[in-house]
Design goal:
2 copies of one chain form a homodimer. The first copy, chain A, is an alpha/beta fold. The first copy, chain A, has 12 helices and 13 strands. Chain A has 2 domains: about 160 residues, 3-Layer(aba) Sandwich (Rossmann fold), CATH 3.40.50; about 160 residues, Dihydrodipicolinate Reductase, domain 2. Strand 13 of chain A pairs antiparallel with strand 13 of chain B.
Chain lengths: ~325, ~325
C-alpha cells in the first residue's frame, strides 16, 4: 500500500521508522509545514528517519526534496492510496488538518490521522464523506494511541450496543498522581519531574486540567456511539487542586486517585464528566499505573470489559497509525 | 446474511434469541444430534427460541421439522452463507464437529464455531482450508467468549508482534477462588456452591484442574502467533490443592490467588504454563473478580495491554458468535 505523510514531528518520525521495518507499506512522500520530500518509486524510510533526527528541513534532503508546497499539487503529483495526517493539532478550528483530510478524501484517498482537533470538531462530516466514497478514515491515534479504544469499539464490540464508557485516558496525569502517591511529592514537584522527564508538556494545561481526557471521551463517544457530543458540554475538573494530604488520605484507605472520565450513554442528555475519583483496589482502574491508560465499555450483550495499558509514547502512537493503515488495507483486499 | 446452526444447547438457543433481535442475520436451519428444522425463506427465531425452551426435539416443530439428518444433505438442501457450529465438544478427536466444519468450508460456507475440541486439535488445517477458499473461520467463542481475546489479537494488535501472553481465562475457578477468599469457604464448599448456582459443572475436572485454561491459552497462541502448540506439552496445575489457609495467608499479605496461564512466545520452546499464582493489588489481574476473565498481550510496538471482563454466560458466548459473524460479513461487503 502506497502512503503519503503530512507531519514529521515525533509521531511522524516514529512512523517512518516503523514503515522501514515492514514490506507492505511504501512511503511515497513526507511533508511538514515548510518543506517536503517525495519519490514516486518510494522513499528510503531508514534514510529519511536518520535525516529527520538531524533536521526537519526536507528541502535540503537531496533528490526529491522541496520547499513550500500546496497539498493539492502534491496529491496531483504523487500517486498514493492513503494519506497519514499527523501535523500539530488546532483544537479551535481543526485547520489546516481538516481541509487536508477533506481534500484527500475527495481525491479518493483513505485517511488515517493522529490529529485530535479535526476529529473532535468534525468527525461526523469527515466520516460521512469517507463512507460516501467507500474510503477508510482511521482515528485510533487520536483517542488513546497504543490503547486500542477505537479498534476495540469497532471490532470487539460488533453486534453489541454500547451503554456507557469509563476511562482513564491521560497518561501524563496518571503519572503525576503516581509520583504524588509513591514518591510523596506535592503536585508541583510531581509536575516538574514529569516535565523534566519529557512526559508532561511545557504548558501542561490540556492534560492537568482534564481537557485531554474530555477530548478523548468525546471522540470515542462520537465515533462508537454515533453521538454528536461537544467538548463545551463536558463537565471537566483536573488534578491541579489535589494536595499531598488528599493523596495520603486515600492511600490510608487502600484507595488511590484516578482522573476518570465517565459517560452514561443511556442518559437523556449524555454528558462527558471528567474528574479525579478515589478508586478502591477492587476497581478495574486501580492497577492502571504510571503512564498507562484504560477504558471500560459497558455493553448490552457482551457485559462489561476493560482494556488497560498502552503507555503513552511516540512509538505507541505510530503503531496505532500502522494498525489503522493495516485495518483499512485488510478490508480493501477483502482478506476474510 | 443467511446462516445455519448446528447445536441447539444453551449457547445455540441464546444465539437464536440474539438473531431474533437483529435484521441483518437470517436463520435458515437449526440442527441438533437427533432432529432439525429448516425453512428456505427463514425461520422465525422467536418461535424457535420459545420452542427450544420446552423441548429439543425439533421433529415435532411443525412445518419444516425433521428427524435424523446428514449434514451433506442439509447443505445441499438449504442455501446459506455461513454455518455456526455449536455442538458439545469432544476434546480427544474434535469429531463430529471437525468433519462438519470441513464439509461446510469445502461447500464454500464461512464457519463460526464455539467448539473447543476441533479448534484446539485442528486449527491450522481448518484455517488453511478457509483461507484457500477465501472464507472466514471465526473461533472467538472458543477462547474467552464475551472476552474478545481473538478479536483483539486479530484487530487491535495489527502491525505488532505478540511476544507473550498472560491470562486468567477460566471464570469458574475465578469464582471459586472468590468464594474462598470473600466467604472464607473451603475449596469443597466453594465448589459445591458454584455447582448449585450452575456456574461449575457436575464434573468440574476440566475447569478446576486447569485444563480449560490451558486449552484456551493453546487456542489463542496457535491462532494469533501461528504456533502449533499441543495441549499435552502444557504444564498444568489446578486449584484443587489450595486450602483456606493458603487463601487467608495471601489475603493477609494484600494478595490473592488467580489461576494464571502464561506463555513466553520468545522462548526457544514456547510452552503454556497454568498454575495458581499469588498476585498483588498492583497486578493487572488483581481486580478480575467473580466470573470475570482477563488476558494480557505483550507486544513489540504497542507495549502491554490487558482486556478484562467478559463474565461467563451463554448470552456472552452467543454474542461472541454474533461478533464473529458480523466481522466476516463486514469483510465480505468490503465495508471500510
Amino acid at each position: 500500500m502506497r502512503i503519503g505523510l503530512v507531519g514529521t514531528g515525533g509521531v511522524g518520525r516514529a512512523l517512518v521508522d516503523l514503515i522501514g521495518k515492514r514490506d507492505d507499506i511504501e512511503l511515497v512522500f513526507a511533508l511538514n509545514s515548510r518543506s517536503g520530500v517525495g519519490d514516486q518509486a518510494g522513499l528510503d524510510p531508514e534514510k529519511l528517519y536518520d535525516y529527520l533526527g538531524r533536521t526537519r528541513d526536507l528541502e535540503g534532503y537531496g533528490e526529491g526534496g522541496f520547499g513550500a508546497w500546496r497539498i493539492s499539487d502534491i496529491l496531483n503529483e504523487y500517486r498514493v492510496d492513503l494519506l497519514v495526517e499527523a501535523t500539530p493539532t488546532n483544537k479551535s478550528t481543526g485547520e489546516p488538518a481538516r481541509s487536508t483530510i477533506r481534500l484527500a478524501l475527495e481525491n479518493g484517498l483513505h485517511v488515517v490521522t493522529a490529529n485530535k482537533g479535526p476529529v473532535m470538531l468534525h468527525y461526523r462530516d469527515l466520516k460521512d464523506l469517507a463512507e460516501k466514497r467507500g474510503l477508510g478514515f482511521g482515528i485510533g491515534a487520536t483517542a488513546g494511541a497504543a490503547l486500542p479504544t477505537i479498534s476495540a469499539g469497532e471490532n470487539d464490540l460488533l453486534g453489541s450496543r454500547l451503554l456507557g464508557i469509563r476511562g482513564v485516558l491521560n497518561g501524563t496525569t496518571n503519572y503525576i498522581l503516581h509520583l504524588m502517591e509513591n514518591g510523596g511529592m506535592t503536585y508541583q514537584a510531581a509536575l516538574q519531574k514529569a516535565q523534566e522527564e519529557g512526559i508532561a508538556e511545557a504548558d501542561p494545561t490540556q492534560d492537568v486540567e482534564g481537557w485531554d481526557s474530555a477530548i478523548k471521551m468525546t471522540i470515542i463517544a462520537n465515533a462508537l456511539a454515533g453521538k454528536a457530543l461537544k467538548l463545551e458540554d463536558a463537565e471537566v475538573l483536573g488534578i491541579t487542586h489535589l494536595t499531598s494530604e488528599d493523596i495520603r488520605s486515600a492511600k490510608d484507605r487502600n484507595k488511590r486517585y484516578k482522573l476518570l472520565g465517565e459517560l452514561d450513554l443511556e442518559a437523556e442528555n449524555p454528558r462527558v464528566v471528567v474528574k479525579p475519583v478515589m478508586v478502591s483496589h477492587e476497581d478495574i482502574f486501580y492497577g492502571v499505573q504510571g503512564k498507562n491508560k484504560g477504558i471500560q465499555y459497558v455493553t448490552d450483550n457482551l457485559g462489561e470489559f476493560a482494556i488497560l495499558g498502552g503507555a503513552s509514547d511516540v512509538r505507541g502512537a505510530a503503531a496505532a497509525i500502522i494498525r489503522d493503515i493495516l485495518q483499512i488495507k485488510k478490508r480493501i483486499f477483502r482478506k476474510v
